[in-house]
From TrEMBL:
SUPFAM superfamilies: PLC-like phosphodiesterases. Transmembrane segments: none annotated. Residues 1-21 form the signal peptide. GO terms for molecular function: phosphoric diester hydrolase activity. This is Phosphatidylinositol-specific phospholipase C X domain-containing protein. The keyword Transmembrane helix does not apply. Coiled coil: none annotated. Keywords: Signal.
Length: 303
């Protein structure tokens, strides 16, 4: 081997070592979900701003079915690190709407490699988990980023830290309210049964005081080993006959999404959660009020 080839090989080896070193330096997260203080925080002990029914956005105040006024990329840029969505019809899958939705999140994740992200979906039509749900995640490119727990259900204290999720690039957690336990056509390892690991207080609340009780949960874990979500999205009944018709209360959103209101709700649930802050603060109209600031406070961050 002549000298020039030897020098070239040495250069390539040196560059490869340097590139690997730079990758390792980049790989170890020093800022996680916007704060270095969260890197060593376990996922199960972190609070995330959650956009309720994030699909249903419209800037039209007459759109009574809306729960958000801004689109999905804007919700994430505001600080939502959990998106909740209700997939009511197979057409949402057949028409590619779920896939398009997931691709918007994938674009955000690619541009923000130090963020841990959560999906909480409903499955009211009991669509097949391996046959319908998983292909949507595959097509959007999110499956390789999805965290697969070593066992399920996972206790709250057994979750990795945000840094561990980011460093392994398994930083997307997916919960589904029904069927992920295998009752709807099989199990997918990264699509997790929500209520076995996350309890919720009353949904569709109409009382601005948000009285707390554990309403939706499932075994085999005790509720103390669950994470929990507070439904802090106020509704009003526009047709108070029979079961009535509930719509999201846009008019009172500034008060509902205030620091005082959210903290009062979180504190009301604390006796049911060993004094812990909620893991997920679910809001309508997250662009209004102080949701992100309050979540930072619940995480113990300076604001």
């Amino acid at each position: 081997m002549n000298l020039s080839i030897q020098l070239l090989c040495a250069f390539l080896l040196s560059w490869s070592s340097l590139a690997n070193g730079l990758y390792l330096l980049r790989k170890r997260a020093t800022v996680c979900n916007g704060s270095s203080a969260l890197c060593d925080r376990k996922y199960g002990n972190t609070t995330f701003l959650t956009a309720h029914n994030s699909f249903a956005f419209s800037s039209n105040p007459l759109a009574l079915a809306r729960t958000q006024a801004v689109d999905i990329p804007t919700q994430m840029n505001i600080g939502a690190r959990t998106l909740q969505g209700q997939a009511h019809m197979r057409a949402l899958f057949d028409g590619g709407l779920v896939e398009d939705y997931l691709k918007k999140v994938k674009t955000f994740l690619d541009a923000n490699p130090y963020e841990v992200f959560t999906f909480i979906f409903t499955n009211p039509d009991r669509q097949s988990i391996p046959g319908v749900w998983k292909p949507a995640f595959d097509a959007a490119g999110i499956t390789p980023l999805a965290y697969v727990p070593p066992s399920r259900p996972m206790k709250r204290n057994d979750w990795p830290t945000l840094r561990e999720l980011i460093d392994t690039n398994k930083r997307v957690i997916v919960f589904l309210d029904a069927g992920a336990d295998g009752s709807d056509g099989g199990v997918v390892d990264f699509i997790l049964p929500q209520f076995q690991m996350v309890w919720e207080d009353p949904f569709s609340p109409t009382d601005a005081n948000f009285p707390c009780s554990i309403q939706r949960t499932s075994g085999p874990l005790s509720n103390d080993d669950h994470m929990h979500l507070i439904n802090h999205n106020l509704n009003r009944n526009i047709i108070p006959i029979g079961d009535g018709v509930l719509v999201s209360d846009f008019v009172n959103a500034p008060k509902t999404n205030s620091v005082d209101s959210i903290l009062a709700h979180a504190n009301g649930c604390a006796p049911l959660s060993q004094g812990r802050a909620p893991n997920f603060v679910l809001l309508d109209y997250i662009d209004i009020g102080q949701g992100k600031k309050t979540v930072d406070m619940l995480n113990g961050l300076s604001v």
